[in-house]
Design goal:
Blueprint: E1 5-10, H1 19-28, E2 38-47, E3 50-58, H2 67-71, E4 77-79, E5 85-87, H3 97-101, E6 108-109, E7 116-117, H4 134-138, E8 144-148, H5 155-162, E9 178-181
Parallel strand pairs: 1-9
Antiparallel strand pairs: 1-8, 2-3, 4-5, 6-7
Amino acid sequence: MTKRYVLVHDENKCIGCQACNVACRSENSVPDSVTRIQVRIEGPYGNFPHLHFKYNRVSCEQCENAPCVKVCPTGAAYVNDDGIVSINEKKCVGCLYCVAACPYKVRFINPETRVPDKCDFCKDTRLARGEEPACVSVCPTQALVFGDANDLTSKVRKVLDTKPNYQQKVNLGTEPRVYRIPSRKGGIKA
C-alpha cells in the first residue's frame, strides 16, 4: 500500500453542527432515510452553568483488517490499493454478510440502489480530483484532518505524532484508520 489514508476527528474542536453529514449527503447522493456519517451528540455533562457535550463521529472506520471484506463471498467488498474499503455494486448479490459483520454498525442498505453502502472518503469523486473528502472540506472548526499517514510530512501524520489519540474497538483487531483526539472534558470510550 503506497498510501495509507486516515482521518482524525478532534472531539475538542467538533461542535456537532452536522455540516459534515450535509456535505456527505450532497457529494454522494445519500438518500434522506440513511447516512454515511453523522456526529452523535452526548450529554449534557456537568453541572449548570458548566455543562459540556461529547461529539462522537459515526462512520466507516476504514479497517485495515476489515471484517466486512473477509465475509463477502463475491469480492464486492474489497480493499483498494490505497487501503480504502470499498464496494463494487456490480458484484454484490445482496447477502448482507458485510452489514452483519461490521462491528461498528455503519454499513446500511441504500434504499435506491439496494446495495450496502458506507463512507469511502469520497474516493471516486473528491479524492479522484485530488481534493479532501467533503466532510473535511466543510468543517467550520477544522475538527477533521485527512491525509496519507505514510507521508511523514503530511498534516495528518503530524497530528497523529503530536496529539494523544485513540481508535474505537481496537481490541477486535480491525485496525481502524479513523482516529480520535479525546475530549479533554470526557473520558476515552472504547
